[in-house]
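Re-run with default settings, no changes from the original entry. Doing this only to confirm the output is reproducible before filing.
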Amino acid sequence: MNRSGTAAAGYHQQPAGAGPARRRRRSRGKVVLTVLVVLLLLLVGLWFYVDSSLKRVTALADYPDRPAAGAGTNWLLVGSDARDGLSEEEKAELATGSAAGHRTDTIMIMHIPDGSGNPILVSLPRDSYVSIPGHDKNKINAAFAIGGPPLLARTVEQATGLRMDHYVEIGFGGFANVVDDVGGVEMCLDEPMKDPKAGIDLPAGCQELNGAQALGFVRTRAFQSGDLERVQNQRKFLSALLHKATSAAVLANPFRSLPLAFDLSDAISVGDDDHLHNLAGLAFALGGGMDTATAPVGGFDQVSGAGSVVVWNQAKAKQLFGALRDGTPVPADLVQQPAG
């Protein structure tokens, strides 16, 4: 066989169109990679933008005899009646009233253990009668009205013996916007709930609450047990809200997650050293399975200058907060049914 025949026999002709097809695949791959890189940069940029936009307050200052750090991580969660930025129409829609100054209807401690075990969300009734440093004894929410976040944090630390590691506060308008951003939150009511002061008239049964309705739901104390049932509703709703906010249906939907990210920076205030990654850890802890509790109540009293107050059962309070401080199991009779 001649050389030309050998060459012809050893020659494999490339299929027609194979070269252009391979180039098109490489081109598509480059486009996909470019899009992914751009999306990643946008997400990183959004993360840093939201983190830098968070309002920060000096809430957790050192002072003489401050409790030492204990086991786990403690968040002080505060719901304030701040109306900053709300128009008169928005105040009417949210039934916030127009009172001057800042107060708080919601005070909670979120304890996240170092190792195994559920996080536990502990409500401190706003009428709890405690010592306020420099101001004698009064309702615990008076500390916020008198001295803002720093005095409230110090009062909570002194009353519980727990050192707070992080602080987060949300106001009226911000709370309602966050609920609307996630598309509402489902709540199931055993009986109708009506409270003109809180701006709600809800039927019994399962229903999706919008921002205004949700705000009324967590604010109302039109119950026989007043504030004690309200704190249970607050924990129940907070868990449901964070569970939905951290769900794939919200996080993967830019029409939900982007408004949520931007509104979040306007809705909340955090401690000086707190960042978005801290809030993300808190959100996932609140949105997952957790235990709940209320500062043990020993009774009620009428106090001159303070009115009707909630008196803690000091022996049980020491058991509850001592267990959180030491990282030991909380007595079963002080823990309520898991939320989430």
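The chain is about 45% helix and 25% strand. Residues 28 and 34 are 10 Å apart (CA to CA).
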